């Protein structure tokens, strides 16, 4: 009899990649996917006949409770979340990211389901208090999105003490095809010669989509006793943003990024402070990400999850090619 897998976030970058990999095991698993009502059909077409759709907004906690109460799942892959930078109320962020996670985790505990929760390295803040950030590094709620992820992790870890079979994965900023987040915008800015490149050595740590999706699939398909652990997920090693910017520009133009576009790092730090004063979380984070180093200890993940080894250079070229063809 097939085991039932409930997935949230199937239309996103990570969720869709996870689902695609799980199709190799479709003879063992039956898939049910929660999708937001009103989702464009074009975003669902690729999944037709491969999964059962449940149209439910995770912001609707009462209907989520009712749905969970009448169903039984062996695995729950909770990947969906409202990401930072959206112009939504804090109550929407809280109910979708925290309360929905709490309901799912409590259901998993009651029904002995295995829960894989996709959190974020953002629990350490946009810029961690120490690098490489590790599981002993202090959490930092420097914006409301990060705050909701911290709360969700705390809820799950409390329930683990009561017997919840759960694992937390924390991807770094993830790059792949058909996503329009930080990696894509980085390419766009470099192409338009509007990216201010710091004159300091800034180390960053990105995550190939294949790495995080492989981690989640491993936690479903491999017989493992891993319970209650949290894994930071990123490429094998960090890189200097100077090297990445030059790599991207060479892919686009055949030349390194113009030296005259290098700016003093103090100006970027000032930009972060000014946007912070005006409580613009998105732009504050953007300035910080290009003016301060952020990287993570991923040794446990590579030791225990059989991850593919990806290096940001040259693998980031998939984003460059996505930009070219979009």
Provide tags for this entry.
326 residues, alpha/beta, Rossmann fold, two-stranded parallel sheet
Average pLDDT score = 95
The SSE string, one letter per element, is EHEHEHEHEHEEHEEEHEEHEHHHHH
| Fourth-tier CATH superfamily name of the domain at 3-175 and 206-236 and 296-308 | NAD(P)-binding Rossmann-like Domain
What is the alpha-carbon Rg in Å?
A: 20 Å
What characteristic shape results from the CA principal axes?
globular
Q: Tell me about the largest β-sheet.
A: 7 strands, parallel
- What oligomeric state is this? single chain
CATH class of the domain at 3-175 and 206-236 and 296-308: Alpha Beta
Distance between the termini: 42 Å
Please identify the structural class as seen in this structure. Answer: alpha/beta
Give the tally of β-strands: 13
Strand content: 15-25%
Number of helices: 13
Major sheet: order of its strands?
3-2-1-4-5-6-11
pLDDT < 50 runs, ≥5 residues: none
CATH domain fold name of the domain at 3-175 and 206-236 and 296-308: Rossmann fold
CATH architecture of the domain at 3-175 and 206-236 and 296-308: 3-Layer(aba) Sandwich
- Bin the helical content: 40-55%
